[in-house]
Amino acid sequence: MTATLVLSNPVMNEIMVASGNPLETAGVLRAVLVRTPAGHIRLLGRGIDWVPDNAYLDRRHDGLGISSEGYVGSLGKAEARGEIAIWFHTHPGVGSSPRPSQHDEQVDGQIADLFRLRTGQEFYGTLIVAPTGHGIAFTGTLQHEDGARFALDRLWDVSDTWRLVKSYNDPSPPLASMFDRNVRAFGGEVQRTLSELTIGIVGTGGTGSAVAEQLVRVGVRHLHVIDADELSLSNVTRVYGSHPDQVGQPKAEVVRDHLLSIAPDLDCQVQVGMIVDQPIARELCECDLVFGCTDDNAGRLVLSRLGTYMLTPVIDMGVLLSSDHGGNLRGIDGRVTVMAPGTACLLCRNRIDVRRAAAELMNEDERHRLAGEGYAPVLAGVEPAVVTFTTAVAAAATSELLERLTGYGPDPRPSEVLLRLHDREISTNIVEPREHHYCHPASGKQGLGNTTPWLEQVWRNA
After folding, report:
1. Would the pLDDT of 455 be above 80?
2. Do residues 83 and 444 make contact, with C-beta atoms less than 8 angstroms apart?
3. Exposed e or buried b for every residue in 358-370, given b needs 16+ CB within 10 A?
4. DSSP letter assigned to residue 438
5. To which H or E segment does residue 118 belong?
6. Is residue 61 within 8 Å of 23, Cβ to Cβ?
7. What distance in Å separates the CA atoms of residue 309 and residue 161, rounded to the nearest whole number?
């Protein structure tokens, strides 16, 4: 079992500022605990309440004392919101160790039961942060009411740039020589991050299979691949690693087998199904980020909510080829949209046709009946697709991941890339969330985790 703490703006920024204070700083980090289908734990940071100045009984660079007024109010807030309380403090000074001192452990023993009792939660958490000069180091624990203790293994920062920080006690594995050219481009830390991230891919067609192969070749070693379809003969022209003798096999399994031939050490979990079915969609809880490579509107509705409710960045993409009545190719449009917590979702960007999404969830008889009565749109047939163009969009999407890990791009960072390949043009944009929409930071929906219903939406066959 691994335990990952996921933090977005502004919580991560507040912690970074606190880590630079020359005096120890403390607060209560409120988080929602999510158990994944595989039994891992994800803590979704919801907010941090700092100890007010008048509650410090003693405050130095190497110690502090705090009255109960410094944290009791925050425990009540956590209880009202169904959150666990994590006792947070810093160890100031670059080069300081974030390991707990004997005094820290004594304090944990004194307040753990109170934190669990006042929040009504089974866990009490701790987090200690120290500055490193280029970021932070941390240690943390989760202490269950039955006495079991679990280490916080990973901190996944999904702010403007993305960074995975492993616990201070966790040594970094050596880098494989096969990635030497990558390391020369973006350094060893990013290369290690790529090997340790768990990435979901929804859809394994022209874009999805290309994304999967590129990720594996740059060093990703943990994938969750989801697709409901079987390989058709026309898929062979676009699906990487596919062959005519595999027609009829699940596309996700065809892609997995191809990826394993490239990287035998790859951990690739496959789900043959659609993410409009809740059990399949919940598998994405295992992922640190997800690539949306599906062409259906209903699936995009799920992905659009995932970024907000689970603090899981989603990189969604699409390709549209336009031809005239004579069959002449006129337009080659690609889109790559990055949805991180606090950014506009696909609905705010008008990238989802809600009526079509509803029609896609109907059974065939119901859809044809309502379409004939004018109450549902007639769904399009097979859309044109060419491997050259699906691969170009997949490469742009994979590049967005690398950019957010390395920060080589512009400031402010765009959240959407539009490719007009027919005009040899690329443009970018930044769209703010709509006021009162679920993706807006003021909605209170960020990091809600396991809501009822999940993601606060209606599910097929629920």
Report:
1. yes
2. no
3. bbbbbeeeebeeb
4. T
5. helix 102-119
6. yes
7. 19
Q: 373 — phi, psi (to 5°)?
A: -90, 0
Structural contact between residues 104 and 128, judged by C-beta atoms closer than 8 angstroms? yes
d(CA 72, CA 56): 14
Question: How large is the average pLDDT for residues 137-159?
Answer: 96
Looking at 213-255, which runs of residues are DSSP E strands? 222-226
User: Contact, 418 vs 335, CB < 8 A?
Assistant: yes
- Strand-strand pairing, 222-226 and 149-151: unpaired
When pLDDT is cut at 50, 70 and 90, the band that residue 316 belongs to is very high
Q: Would you say 356 and 379 are in contact if contact means Cβ atoms under 8 Å apart?
A: yes
Q: Give DSSP secondary structure letters for 303-351.
A: HHHHHHHS---EEEEEEEEEE-TTS-EEEEEEEEEEE-TTS--TTTTT-
Peptide bond into 10 cis (omega under 30): yes
Predicted local distance difference test score (pLDDT) of residue 375: 47
Dihedral, CA atoms, 150, 154, 158, 163, nearest 10 degrees?
Answer: 170
**Which of 43, 42, 47, 44 lies closest to 10 in space, CA to CA?**
47
Q: What percent of the chain clears pLDDT 90, i.e. is strictly above it?
A: 88
Predicted confidence (pLDDT) at residue 306 exceeds the cutoff of 80: yes
Q: Which helix (H) or strand (E) holds 98?
A: none
Tokens linked to 18: 């606190």
CA 440 to chain centroid, in Å, comes to 17
Q: What share of the chain is helix, strand, coil (3-state, %, to 5)?
A: 35, 25, 40
Question: Residues 415-426: pLDDT tens digits?
Answer: 999 999 999 999
Neighbours of 105 (CB within 10 A): 12
Beta bridge partners of residue 223, listed in sequence order: 199, 268
d(CA 345, CA 332): 24
pLDDT in tens, 255-278: 999 999 999 999 999 999 999 999
Task: Please give the mean pLDDT across all residues of the chain.
Answer: 93
Structure-model confidence comparison of residues 152 and 362, the more confident one? 152
Give whole-number Cα distances, 353 to 121, 187, 297, 358, 422, in Å. 40, 41, 6, 9, 24
d(CA 404, CA 419): 19
Alpha-carbon separation of residue 38 from 35, 213, 229, 359 (angstroms): 8, 24, 24, 32
